[in-house]
Design a protein that fits this description.
Subcellular location: Cytoplasm
Shape: elongated
Mean pLDDT: 86
Structural class: alpha+beta
Number of domains: 2
Radius of gyration: 37 Å
Largest sheet: 5 strands, mixed
Organism: Serendipita indica (strain DSM 11827) (Root endophyte fungus)
Oligomer: single chain
Family: Belongs to the TBCB family.
CATH architecture of the largest domain: Roll
Protein name: Related to Tubulin-specific chaperone B
Order of helices and strands: EEHEEEHHHHEEEEEEE
InterPro entries: CAP-Gly_dom_sf, CAP-Gly_domain, TBCB_Ubl, Ubiquitin-like_dom, Ubiquitin-like_domsf
Strand order of the largest sheet: 2-1-5-3-4
Helix content: 10-25%
CATH class of the largest domain: Alpha Beta
CATH topology of the largest domain: Ubiquitin-like (UB roll)
CATH superfamily of the largest domain: Phosphatidylinositol 3-kinase Catalytic Subunit, Chain A, domain 1
Distance between the termini: 74 Å
Length: about 240
């Protein structure tokens, strides 16, 4: 059985994982910990915990003549090193920023400086200072109509996953509800639709009841799609 254990050593300024022999005495351990924590051996108080969040130690290593094995030190435990004389060792002062002089700038002073992050990214046109690119032009109705010819076979995608096949019967703007823009009117192969080509009393194309639907162009793919009975649910975006 190995006599080497791997424990976590924490102090006001350090946190590390260390390997020690269980035959090592507490006095010898303190000498090694002085190099790790910067706390003089004579000022060290050692407490052993099962984990970092425990408030009650399972052992206090207060006998420098005893070996680590005497205290049942095991791998994964935490050894907390407290400095009993911090004024002599300056322990914890490296993490104490209360005495650090603060450097404050007004907003105007910051804007005038040339050595700031803002001035750097502005100079190199990064982030919000990058050149604005023109947004892609919205396709015209003529362009959409050319891409989705009336009478073409198509497949309509749904957010839920299923795809429905049918024939394009209408391409253009509609007047139903607040759904502006160009829509594709499709006659499905099966009764998966929600209308017969008319919505809110206005007819856009004609097909059997429950076979008509409207979808945005981005949901429609034109191609060689033979009729197929998929038996799927209704498309959520159809009207």
């Amino acid at each position: 059985m190995s006599s080497i254990v791997s424990i976590f050593v924490t102090s006001p300024d350090t946190h590390s994982e260390r390997r020690y022999d269980l035959h090592l005495t507490v006095g010898q351990l303190k000498a090694k910990l002085e190099l790790v924590t910067g706390i003089p051996a004579q000022s060290q108080s050692l407490s052993l915990y099962r984990n970092e969040d425990d408030q009650t130690p399972i052992a206090v290593l207060d006998d420098e003549s005893k070996a680590l094995g005497f205290y049942s030190v095991a791998s994964g435990q935490f050894l907390k090193v407290r400095d009993t004389n911090p004024n002599a060792s300056m322990s914890g002062q490296f993490t104490d920023v209360s005495q650090v002089e603060k450097f404050d700038l007004t907003k105007d002073e910051y804007e005038r400086r040339t050595d700031t992050v803002k001035s750097y990214i502005e100079k190199h046109q990064m982030g919000r200072f990058a050149p604005k690119t023109d947004s892609p032009a919205t396709p015209t109705l003529a362009e959409i109509s050319a891409q989705y010819p009336i009478g073409s076979r198509c497949e309509v995608a749904t957010d839920a996953g299923p795809k429905y096949r049918g024939t394009i019967r209408f391409v253009g703007e509609t007047e139903f509800g607040n759904k502006t823009g160009v829509w594709i009117g499709v006659e499905y192969d099966e009764a998966w639709g929600k209308n017969d080509g008319s919505v809110e009393g206005k007819r856009y194309f004609t097909c059997p009841p429950a076979k008509g639907a409207f979808a945005r162009p981005k949901k429609v793919t034109v191609g060689d799609f033979p009729p197929e009975d998929l038996g799927l649910d209704d498309e959520d975006e159809e009207l």
